[in-house]
Design goal:
By secondary structure, the chain is of the alpha/beta class. It has helices spanning 60-71, 110-155, 162-180, 186-213, 221-235, 249-261; strands spanning 25-27, 38-45, 48-55, 78-82, 85-86, 103-108. Helix content is 51%, strand content 12%. Helix 2 packs parallel to helix 4 (186-213) and helix 3 runs antiparallel to helix 4 (186-213).
């Protein structure tokens, strides 16, 4: 009986593909276990021509691995043609007639091209959306400054005209409509959502300031009496047994101011 030792016929361990310092040439080391003489292939890809050095007994799959570094295409994205026929990854170069200085044609798979085009389209759309959002953000910044100035005036005890509140609210709503018309995905969608919330917050702030502006002297005691009278009158819960404060000068002034504001 013939016996075979444990190490007989065992193939040497696979070695990694090596890329030479020359940016125009890719090679597979002679010690990679493929064997055979090294040949040079000219691989045409688009308008580029790449020189690849590898053992003659390598497969087309081995060639694809080297082309990943040269073209940026993953192996599954590549199609290799020799003499007009597409080759399978498992086919060996020398058995298919590939020799030194043979020319190989590399094409990118259609699905890969479509995927890249779709990714490019999405990036372009996102860029346009972010640009549009930035334009709205710049306008909202200006309006925010006006709201802050209005708040400062009211905090100082001044009143603002109804026209100013209406104008600022209208301008903010226009920016909100602009944001609503922006088609956005990914990061652009997040930015749009954040800007929408900011605009809504400014509108709410204007509503609050408008209520405060109706009674700029509310910090004084007499104004507080007038405000209390207005609130009980508005809710219809004023106690008829209590003496009316409507005859006091301070509450009369507040009521008149409120009527003129509305």
């Amino acid at each position: 009986m013939n016996t075979v030792s444990d190490t007989a016929g065992a193939s040497p361990p696979a070695q990694p593909i090596e890329i030479s310092p020359d940016t125009k040439t890719a090679t597979i080391s002679d010690s990679d276990g493929v064997g055979g003489p090294t040949i040079k292939l000219n691989v045409s890809y688009g308008s580029s021509l790449h020189q690849i050095h590898l053992p003659a007994q390598s497969t087309f799959g081995d060639l694809k691995k080297l082309l990943v570094h040269k073209t940026g295409l993953e192996s599954e994205q590549q199609r290799l043609f020799f003499r007009g026929i597409e080759k399978d990854d498992r086919e060996k170069l020398h058995t298919e007639g590939v020799k030194d200085k043979s020319k190989i044609l590399l094409l990118e798979r259609a699905a890969s091209k479509e995927k890249k085009l779709e990714e490019t389209r999405k990036l372009n759309e996102m860029s346009k959306a972010i640009e549009a959002i930035n334009g709205v953000r710049a306008e909202v910044d200006k309006l925010s400054n006006r709201v802050d100035a209005l708040e400062g005036a009211i905090n100082a005890g001044n009143k603002a005209s109804e026209k100013e509140f209406l104008l600022l609210t209208e301008l903010l709503m226009k920016q909100l409509l602009k944001l609503d018309g922006i088609e956005a995905e990914g990061e652009a969608k997040s930015q749009r959502k954040a800007e929408v919330r900011r605009v809504q917050g400014l509108v709410d702030k204007l509503d609050s300031l408008k209520a405060r502006s109706s009674n700029p002297s509310s910090h004084s005691g007499s104004a507080a009496t007038g405000t209390t009278h207005w609130e009980t009158f508005d809710t219809g819960t004023e106690d008829s047994n209590e003496p009316s404060s409507a005859t006091t000068p301070s509450s009369t002034k507040v009521s008149q101011d409120w009527e003129r504001f509305d």
